[in-house]
Design brief:
Elements (H helix, E strand, L loop, with lengths): L1 H13 L4 H13 L8 E14 L8 E13 L4 E16 L9 H7 L4 E18 L4 E24 L2 E8 L7 E17 L2 E12 L14 E11 L9
Helix pairs in contact: 1-2
C-alpha cells in the first residue's frame, strides 16, 4: 500500500519535473527499501513553497511546489544528518512591475497587468543536522545550496470580460547561478516507521544569505522561503525495534 502511495506522489510531480528527475525518484521508490536500515534510509518528500524575494517593490509571497529525496544518516539516538536533493523547488514573488516587451500592441494589452509573478526554479541541496526531542518531535538546522535552473516573468490581464491574456517572458534580469541559505526545521512524525510505513510532517524556513541578482549595485536581493511538506521513509523496523 505504501508503494502505491509513493508512486502516486511521483506521478503527481512528474508533470513539473524533467523526466530524468522523475526517473531518479522512481528508482528510490523501487529500490529504496532494499538498502534501508534503521541507521540509514531514503525518503521521498513533496509539498509547497511559500516564497518571497527581498527588494521587490510592492511584491507579495508566491507559492509553488517542492519535491525531492532525503537520506537519513543516524549518528546516535538523538542526532541524525539528513542531506537532501530537491530537483523541484519553485521560488519567486508575485505582483512584480511590468517590464515592457518592446512590442507596442502587446504592451498596450497587458499594461497594467491584473496579476504578475516572477518564478525562480532551483535545485536545492540542504544538509540538515536533526536533533530528536522525543519519539515524534525533532528540530533541525543547516546550510542549503541552490542551483538556479530557470527564471521567467508571467503577466495576466483581461482583454475582454471572458478573455484572459497571459504573457510569459524570460527574465530580463541577470541572476546568479548559485544561492546559499540557512534552514531551520520542525519535524513531527505522524506515523512512526513500522513495518515499512511512516509519514513525517515538516515545516522549514530558509533564509538566503547571498545576493541572487548579478552585478547588483544596490541592496542585496535574497530568497526567503517557508516550506511545508511530507516525507515518506523507506525503512522497516520491527514493532519491538528500538
Amino acid at each position: 500500500m505504501k508503494k502505491w502511495t509513493l508512486l502516486l506522489a511521483v506521478v503527481m510531480t512528474a508533470a513539473y519535473a524533467p523526466p530524468a528527475r522523475s526517473q531518479a525518484a522512481l528508482l528510490v521508490l523501487l529500490f529504496g527499501d532494499k538498502v534501508a536500515s534503521e541507521n540509514f534510509y531514503f525518503s521521498l518528500k513533496v509539498g509547497a513553497n511559500v516564497a518571497d524575494v527581498s527588494g521587490v517593490d510592492g511584491g507579495s509571497v508566491a507559492t509553488g511546489l517542492n519535491f525531492g529525496l532525503l537520506g537519513t544518516i543516524k549518528i546516535s539516538d538523538k542526532f541524525s544528518l539528513v542531506p537532501e536533493f530537491a530537483p523541484l523547488s519553485r521560488k519567486g514573488v508575485k505582483n512584480i512591475p511590468y517590464l515592457p516587451s518592446g512590442i507596442a500592441e502587446l504592451d498596450n494589452l497587458i499594461t497594467p497587468p491584473s496579476a504578475s509573478q516572477m518564478a525562480l526554479n532551483y535545485i536545492d541541496i540542504p544538509v540538515i543536522a536533526k536533533y530528536q526531542l522525543g519519539d515524534r518531535l525533532s528540530i533541525g538546522t543547516g546550510p542549503q545550496f541552490g542551483i538556479l535552473t530557470s527564471s521567467s516573468n508571467t503577466y495576466d490581464n483581461a482583454v475582454q470580460p471572458d478573455d484572459e491574456l497571459r504573457y510569459t517572458q524570460g527574465s530580463q534580469l541577470s541572476w546568479n547561478k548559485f544561492d546559499v541559505g540557512w534552514a531551520f526545521e520542525l519535524n513531527y512524525s505522524l506515523w512512526q516507521a513500522r513495518e515499512g510505513r511512516g509519514l513525517n510532517l515538516h515545516a522549514r524556513y530558509t533564509r538566503g544569505l547571498t545576493d541572487i541578482l548579478k552585478d547588483n549595485p544596490g541592496d542585496a536581493v535574497s530568497n526567503s522561503v517557508f516550506q511545508f511538506f511530507v516525507s515518506l521513509p523507506f525503512i522497516e523496523i520491527a514493532e519491538n525495534g528500538s
